[in-house]
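User: Just a sanity check before I run the rest of the batch. Below are the structure tokens for the first item. I only need the designed sequence back.
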């Protein structure tokens, strides 16, 4: 079973006063690249969110956003330290009188001095965080289901393409026996034209032909290619299947296909090999998006 690195999940919860929305999106990446967009009030929870994401998402370029919508606009109340304000104002008036300067806008100036006006710091209550945490879990569950569904689609596609490679391999086995008589006739004709058939030592010719045909034998390549394809399908069905392992197996499949093509020495087999290569390239492209 495989999962796609592409995923999407969204969940919302409305308390009546505030609506909380958590959205998770991801694309393929070799590593986990996590980008968080949170309201300032939840900034202290960023480490926890990053830790949860790294455990559950594993890999991918991920964007996580949490938004809040208030049912009605509210203004955060500000407190004024009246004692400190009066103290500042008195001092300013005294300095102004000593210097003979106009006492215009002293109140406005005093209001801007340190600690006179204090705004309530935004904090998140345990009850509010529990709501956000549950909404995050719902979004993550939807996100993981999306990845699984995409993974099922990818699995069907790569299985189909492995099937084409195996079908081509069966066709290679049909074409292979036809090679030897053709190669024998081709060499015989070449030697006849080059030195004359009467001058050819048939015993030596047969020995050289056996040696040459042995070099072109593709029995091992066919066996290994079949084995790698079977192992690829087996790995797909494992619970711990992952894109990296499947990528390594596809490299081995490619190596056997290339060797088979280089030793084929037959136009029909070469066409089948080209078809295998095309399907393998499509498989590799799909594996780039497998978790």
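Assistant: Here's the designed sequence for the first item:
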């Amino acid at each position: 079973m495989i999962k796609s690195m592409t995923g999407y999940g969204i969940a919302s919860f409305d308390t009546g006063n505030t609506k909380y929305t958590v959205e998770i999106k991801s694309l393929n990446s070799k590593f986990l690249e996590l980008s968080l967009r949170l309201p300032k009030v939840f900034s202290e929870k960023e480490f926890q969110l990053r830790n949860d994401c790294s455990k559950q998402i594993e890999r991918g370029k991920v964007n996580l956003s949490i938004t809040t919508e208030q049912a009605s606009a509210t203004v955060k109340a500000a407190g004024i330290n009246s004692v400190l304000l009066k103290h500042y104002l008195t001092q300013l008036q005294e300095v102004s009188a000593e210097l003979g300067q106009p006492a215009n806008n002293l109140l406005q100036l005093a209001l801007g001095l340190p600690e006179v006006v204090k705004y309530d710091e935004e904090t998140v209550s345990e009850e509010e965080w529990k709501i956000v945490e549950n909404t995050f879990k719902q979004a993550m569950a939807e996100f993981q289901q999306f990845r699984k569904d995409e993974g099922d689609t990818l699995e069907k596609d790569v299985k189909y393409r492995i099937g084409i490679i195996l079908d081509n391999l069966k066709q290679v086995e049909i074409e292979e026996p036809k090679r030897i008589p053709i190669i024998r006739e081709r060499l015989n004709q070449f030697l006849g034209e080059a030195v004359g058939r009467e001058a050819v030592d048939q015993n030596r010719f047969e020995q050289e032909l056996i040696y040459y045909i042995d070099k072109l034998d593709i029995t091992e390549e066919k066996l290994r290619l079949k084995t790698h394809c079977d192992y690829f399908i087996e790995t797909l069905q494992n619970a711990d299947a992952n894109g990296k392992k499947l990528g390594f197996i596809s490299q081995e499949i490619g190596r056997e296909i290339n060797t088979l093509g280089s030793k084929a020495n037959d136009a029909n087999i070469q066409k089948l090999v080209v078809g295998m290569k095309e399907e393998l390239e499509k498989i590799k492209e799909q594996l780039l998006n497998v978790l």
